[in-house]
Amino acid sequence: MDDKQLSSRIGELIDEEHRLERDGQPDPARLKALEVELDLCWDLLRQRRARRSAGEDPDDAQVRPTDVVEGYLQ
To answer: Which of 1, 20, 41, 53 could form a cystine bridge with 5, CB 3.0-4.6 A?
Structure first.
């Protein structure tokens, strides 16, 4: 996925999250799944940008395991 595709996917996920919250009682499991997918997308986009800034190929960035990405704040 390139930067444009990642940004588009992030926008879609945010829109869905807002729709669910606006509609009343959202499914907590779906909200959690959206949160995790958003975190993974943001992480991959940041990796791509960092690689580009360092003169490296952004296409070498890879999705990290969920437990790694979700463990950053813990």
So the answer is: 1
Q: What is the mean pLDDT of residues 3-15?
A: 97
Structure tokens at 28: 């907590």
Secondary structure of the chain as H, E, C letters: CCHHHHHHHHHHHHHHHHHHHHCCCCCHHHHHHHHHHHHHHHHHHHHHHHHHHCCCCHHHCCCCCHHHHHCCCC
Q: Spell out the domain ranges in the chain.
A: 3-70
pLDDT in tens, 23-64: 888 899 999 999 999 999 999 999 999 999 999 999 999 999
